[in-house]
Write a sequence for this structure.
């Protein structure tokens, strides 16, 4: 009787694990597919109209055909972006893109990089106009993000190093903590110095 | 489509030699990149240049996507000119890679110099 209960419980547990796994895998796969489609659409949207008209449908269809293979699809999306920027520079599209008053060169087609860079510069200029103190607006989050990523990377690598080389549990736990605190202190000191210099 | 002079690259060679294995066949981008050993998504500038040169023609596949259960593909095919020119270019480049048998073999000393 007990054996029967154990077998039934194990079967139920196995079934639950299988269902959960299927759900998680489906969810992850769906997310990857949506993300890749979004990236492709971003690439397509950033293209000039002649290139978009000629290639967008083909790229969408080919991505749809390989969407069940996430690594191939990711590689496809990445390379399509490179191909698109290459094709924007092709004479056939460059001629179609001829616009008067474009950066002094009438026959110059804006490359993807130029368009992206220009858009970023315009966005940056707008933000600077909107904020009286742009340095504090931009630099703080940037520094914080950099500091957090550096601290995380160093802390993780030191933990791994101590775990592998150190062999001592106490050192393995304390040393990364001490290193992390020192780095946080150093980053905040750097930030304070930068702020002082900015005011000066 | 305006014909332009074509500068043949190594990737283009790979695509052309894959297509020349069945000059009458029609290929879609992913299949062609797989057969020519290129990474998926890198083939489009090559196809674009070959088309502009008049070596390729293309058309949309005539299928009902709902019936087939997949989106339609754009199929590429070598034109008559394309097949001849591709074969000629490949032969020419392969011949250039062959060692010149009529030329005397340089001595080891000459090779070092």
């Amino acid at each position: 009787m007990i054996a029967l209960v154990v077998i039934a419980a194990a079967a139920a547990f196995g079934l639950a694990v299988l269902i959960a796994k299927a759900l998680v895998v489906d969810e992850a796969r769906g997310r990857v597919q949506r993300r890749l489609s979004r990236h492709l659409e971003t690439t397509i949207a950033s293209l000039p109209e002649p290139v978009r008209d000629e290639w967008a449908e083909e790229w969408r269809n080919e991505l749809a055909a390989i969407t069940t293979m996430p690594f191939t699809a990711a590689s496809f999306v990445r390379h399509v972006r490179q191909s698109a920027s290459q094709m924007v520079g092709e004479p056939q599209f460059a001629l179609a893109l001829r616009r008067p008053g474009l950066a002094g060169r009438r026959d110059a087609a804006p490359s993807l990089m130029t368009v992206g860079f220009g858009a970023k510069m315009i966005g940056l200029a707008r933000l600077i106009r909107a904020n009286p103190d742009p340095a504090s607006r931009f630099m703080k989050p940037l520094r914080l993000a950099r500091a957090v990523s550096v601290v995380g990377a160093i802390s993780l690598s030191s933990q791994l190093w101590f775990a592998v080389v150190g062999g001592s549990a106490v050192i393995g736990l304390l040393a990364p903590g001490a290193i992390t605190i020192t780095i946080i202190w150093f980053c905040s000191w750097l930030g304070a110095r930068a702020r002082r210099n900015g005011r000066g | 489509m305006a014909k332009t002079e074509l500068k043949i690259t190594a990737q283009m060679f790979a695509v052309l030699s894959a297509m020349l294995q069945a000059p009458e066949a029609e290929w879609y981008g992913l299949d062609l990149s797989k057969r020519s050993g290129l990474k998926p998504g890198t083939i489009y500038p090559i196809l674009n240049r070959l088309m502009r040169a008049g070596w390729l023609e293309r058309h949309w596949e005539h299928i009902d996507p709902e019936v087939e259960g997949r989106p339609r593909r754009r199929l590429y095919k070598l034109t008559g000119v394309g097949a001849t020119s591709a074969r000629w270019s490949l032969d020419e480049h392969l011949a250039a890679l062959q060692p010149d048998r009529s030329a005397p073999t340089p001595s080891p000393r000459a090779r070092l110099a």
